[in-house]
Design a protein that fits this description.
The protein is α+β, with helices and mostly antiparallel strands. It has helices spanning 3-19, 23-34, 39-46, 52-91, 108-122, 136-139, 173-181, 222-236, 290-295, 312-320, 333-336; strands at residues 126-127, 133-135, 158-159, 165-167, 186-195, 207-217, 243-250, 253-262, 279-288, 304-311. Strands 1-5-6-10-9-8-7 form a seven-stranded mixed beta sheet, with helices on both faces. It binds zinc ion.
Length: 339
Amino acid sequence: MNEDELNSIKDKIKREIEAAKTINQLNQISRGYLGKKGVISRLLKELKTLTKEERVRRGKKINELKCFLQEKLEEKEGLLKKEETKQEGAKFDITVPGRKLKVGHLHPLTQVKRKVEEIFQSMGFSIAQGPEIEDEWHNFDALNIPPEHPARDVWDTLYLREQKLLLRTHTSPVQIRYMEKHQPPLRIIAPGRVFRHEATDARHEFQLSQIEGLMVEREISVANLKAVLSEFFRKFFTKDINFRLDPDFFPFTEPSFNVSVTCVICQGKGCSLCKKTGYLEIAGAGMVHPNVFKNCGLNPKEWQGWAFGFGLDRLAMMKYRIDDVRLFRSADLRFLSQF
Ligand SMILES: [Zn+2]
């Protein structure tokens, strides 16, 4: 074996590695030279037959060849890997729009609640909260409904067994709690859940959402109430809407009204929903009763106020023309996904 043979092996290595197209082929080449029966292993075995001096000289050459081979293999492997990544990348079209993650949305009642809050906040009202489990004082007595008062029967109250507690039947106790802690002038709304012991049908639920409103000033009248309601309806229904106040009775307001708006279904012409009247009752309202002020430690000769209570479910039904209140809490996605 001479110098020429080593050089021709070197050339062969170069050509073979250059021609290799895959990592697999590179591995085969590597085995062909460095494996047990490979070319380089054979050359190293042949060293035994040489003299010591020759062995050293040739051994050095063979080692150089081995290094050359390894270097070339590594170099080519790097190139092939780079290309592979490029091709992988080419399989993906980065211009294709991403798939949107399916996310839920807010319940229609929550959407309506937030809209109402937003409108009243824009008119300077703050949002107040109160407990869903109430005592009789805040739910009834302080609101001018003493124990023997027949008006208590109007609210089919759910009582808790202990401590004379109950599930609040309206959001009006929040008025009391707020006036106990804050000095007028006041401007609040109080959204929340209320509970009634009631059989359910298309218009009644044992659990309802209400929004209470209260404004207390030194001089304030029904005209202010009408102005605020008018602004609210215009913003909530996004159009001018007719409404009217009819005399009603609530123990905590004097005078008291029920508030009706033009029927959203027939636009006032008269239909089965509005019982041919062209109007739908939507809220109760009135001027705060002097006894209510007294019960909160405020002087009724010094302060005046009005209050209202909307059924949030009713508002949502009118806005979206829904004819069955039970749908809201049915957890039926066919219904809910429409909002
Ligand atoms: Zn109607």
